Amino acid sequence: MDFDFSDEQRLLKDSVDRLVAQHHDFAKRKAAAADLKGWSAANWTRFAELGLLGLPFAEADGGFGAGPVETMIVMEAIGRGLVLEPYFATVVLGGGLLRHGASAEMRGELVPRIASGEMTLAFAQMERESRYDLAEVTTAARRAGDGWRLDGAKGLVAHGESADALIVSARVSGGRRDPNGIGLFLVEGAAPGVTRRGYPTQDGQRAAEITLEGAAAIPLGDPEAGFRPMRLAVDEAIAALCAEALGAMEAAHALTLDYLKTRKQFGRAIGEFQALQHRAVDMYILVEQARSMALYATMMAAEPDEDERRRALSGAKAYIGRAARRLGQEAVQLHGGIGMTMEYAIGHYFKRLTAIDLAFGDADYHLERLSRGEGLIG
Prior knowledge:
This protein is of the alpha+beta class. The chain has three domains: about 5-120, Orthogonal Bundle (Butyryl-Coa Dehydrogenase, subunit A, domain 1); about 120-225, Beta Barrel (Butyryl-CoA Dehydrogenase, subunit A, domain 2), CATH 2.40.110; about 230-370, Butyryl-CoA Dehydrogenase, subunit A, domain 3 (Up-down Bundle). About 50% of the residues lie in helices and about 15% in strands. The chain has helices at about 5-25, 25-35, 40-50, 70-80, 85-100, 105-115, 225-260, 275-300, 305-335, 345-360, 365-370, and strands at about 120-125, 140-145, 145-160, 165-170, 180-190, 195-200, 205-220, 265, 270. Strands 1, 2, 3, 4, 5, 6 and 7 form a seven-stranded mixed β-sheet that branches. α5 (about 85-100) runs antiparallel to α7 and α7 (about 225-260) runs parallel beside α9. It starts with 6 loop residues before the first helix and ends in a 7-residue tail after the last helix.
């Protein structure tokens, strides 16, 4: 099988890598994190100008018609640069929900705004007792005249504080864990009845607790058939997270090698000690194995057989979650005390890798699903 990129994909990779290298170094990241939104509006504009915000959307909807490989290229670069901008929340996850669940009319209205950088999205799905179960939804959707109103609470909404619009999972009918009767609804972020409490997360990004009290909402499609498009979007999101983890692992390994070459002890670089060389090689092996699993997840993200797709993605997520944890631990330990400081980048990579592991099911969760002969969530 040919794993080489096409000419267009190589050009995309070169452009994204250059953008991240120029505008997302660690010092600039700290400055962007200090913004009220937690990310840089100027960098978001650069993403739009490069065409990245419209990448996975169909040309008929105002996008560029790219696929999972192009998303992997962008997300790997985002991982290497510890990018704070809400590309994953808006384009990958929010965009996936629109592509799989929204009407053609809604896509035609929203996609150009997303592609131009005018609109950001956040997916409000997790509830107090839902953990990793997408079907655990108690937020209620009810008809009100010609429209819909939502009542409930959502937590850990990535970039939910600054998002222009929220895509909310809400129950129209059925029991609390019933996958049937769940709808996806678009809610304006500043609409009456929406309360957002933002806070920083351990990986340097921001999330929000969101309360909905009679908030006006527009269904993306069939208001009782939102579970399948939600699961499809989350499958694609997991493949994208695997690619982001790969990029972060590559960067953490490179930082560690550089440190081993420059840090001196007993009159020589510590990288000359054979025991530390062996550990650096082990880290390299982890990166390369993670690369294989990220490629596998990318290939399987569009697999039409749901069971096969979910098994593959659970396997990739489980492996990369464990590999990222081990690599992060090794990187921090080989840096010594400086690896524990906020002023040095390596600890931030480890925190982001930990957050990726926890998103949509950690390694233990996916291993348990696989051991029962199941795949991903639901």
